[in-house]
Amino acid sequence: MNLAVILPSRNEPATISAVAAAVGSALDSARAVIVHADSSDTPDTAKHFAATVTRAAKLSLTHLVRGKGAQILAAARRPEVARAEAVLIADTDTRNPDPAVYRALLDSVRAGAALAIADYPRHWDEANLTNHLARPLIAAITGHDVPQPLAGDLAVSHETMTAALRAVETLPTELPGCVDGYGIDVFLLLTAARLGPVASVRLEKPKLHAGSFPHLPAIYHQAVPVLLHLTAAWSPPPAPRGLGPALYRVADRELDPARHQAMLTTLYDLTGPPGGYDERSWPLPAADAWHAVNSGTPAPDAARQLWPHYTRRVLDWLTSGQHATTRQRAQVLAAAHAHLHTAVLTPAGAP
Q1: At the top level of its lineage, which domain of life is listed (predicted)?
Q2: 240 contact partners, CB below 8 Å, separation of at least 6
């Protein structure tokens, strides 16, 4: 089987070599290719990649337009990747890359999955976009409960990548910029979900990588419009009967008090002055945003209207979560997960 790997990066000279070596070990094939899609400010990251020895062939794409999605799509259009039967995409800021993880993702696609994505436990203060919005909304609308839908480590089939390259050309004019950024992950996932099985590869330890909280506004305003637009084309399935609550794995850890306070201060600033966001408790505003897009509101507009509700939800979570047990945190997330499914099944405007 012809395999390809895409490594999008920006200013990651300290970790790129270990990631490239790990994916090279997972491939263990001279027929495979590893494509480094780089938009770094200096040549250091590209130099470290070039110096890494792998059995697979290597291709360096440098000076690319900045944006995770733009870099991935630029690599995907290369003939070396376009003809691959499975394509692995791996985060290059990972500090503990494991060849077994990358191999398992590729094996899942070999076995017939349209997409396979890593499922690792996240610390309770992380993955806020995943836990509060992306996972429960995708599960409610599509019926695919993917624990880590925004994980940066995934593999896609040839059919999925081909469909994604076609689909990106037909997006409304306001969305290609989102897919060129952090919206690429949910774009690939929801494209794959229409084609075949979506597999989660369960891991038992949290991934060590750069925190996403400093980039929360950019991630939100690029990923959420794509999420709302693509899910609006689905009809939500009936609420499942006889199933237990969704399992959320929320790894415990103590936050440094200064860091915790800095996060809360940032969220206060992002949320803005009070006004309207507390009229409907979470997750009802998320369901309202989805219904709005279904009724013709452009997805970026609905995402902007949802933003203060979302940041208030994260602020409340980080405030109360520091005093909760691991079990209590998981229960809160599971309850909101179920509530959102009920809310999207309720017609827009209903009480």
Answers
A1: Bacteria
A2: none
Q: Where in the chain is the domain with CATH 3.90.550.10?
A: 3-231
Overall pTM surpassing 0.85 (yes/no): yes
**Which top CATH class is 3-231?**
alpha beta
pLDDT per 10-residue tile (average), the chain, 351 residues: 94 97 95 97 97 97 97 97 96 94 97 97 92 97 95 97 97 97 98 97 86 86 98 86 83 90 90 61 95 96 96 93 92 95 77 52
Return the structure tokens found at 48: 């470290």
Distance between CA 127 and CA 335 in Å, rounded? 17
SS3 content of the chain, % helix, strand, coil (to 5): 50, 10, 40
Q: Which residues contact 50 (CB under 8 A, 6 or more apart)?
A: 58, 60
Answer yes or no: are the C-beta atoms of 211 and 100 closer than 8 Å. Answer: no
284 to 69, 190, 306: CA distances (angstroms): 30, 22, 10
Cα atoms in the Cβ-side hemisphere of radius 13 Å centred on 344: 30
